[in-house]
Amino acid sequence: MHPCSSDVATRYPGLSRGVREALADPIVQALLAADRVDPQEVADLARRVAARLSPASPTRAARACEHGSDTDVLDRN
């Protein structure tokens, strides 16, 4: 995959290098555009998932397990 530009790193702070590189990839950008998917929403979703799965946040992880839902991570609360 091509290197992540500083423009993408500035637009999507707080994301892992791999996610930033994926969002910077021209093919991924073309697919997102073709499907009318906002890259910012993808970045926001990635941040929420990372926060939910982060070991630094055991309360959130426990709460997700209590709900017993595999799609709970995708909630827009």
In words, what does this structure look like?
The chain has 77 residues and is mainly alpha-helical. The protein has one domain (6-70). The protein is 62% helix and 0% strand. The chain is built from five helices and no strands. The chain is globular, with a radius of gyration of 14 Å. It starts with 5 loop residues before the first helix and ends in a 10-residue tail after the last helix.
Any key phrases for this structure?
77 residues; mainly alpha; 5 helices
In total, the number of strands is 0
Q: How many separate domains make up the residues?
A: 1
Q: What string, H for helix and E for strand, traces the elements in order?
A: HHHHH
* Oligomer kind: single chain
Instruction: Average the pLDDT over all residues and give the rounded result.
Output: 74
Assign a percent range to the helix content: 55-70%
Secondary structure category = mainly alpha
Query: Strand-residue fraction?
Result: under 5%
Give the count of helical stretches.
Answer: 5
What gyration radius follows from the Cα positions, in whole Å?
A: 14 Å
CA-to-CA gap between the ends? 33 Å
Helices and strands in order:
Blueprint: H1 6-11, H2 17-24, H3 26-34, H4 39-53, H5 58-67
Task: Describe the structure in brief.
The protein has 77 residues and is mostly helical.
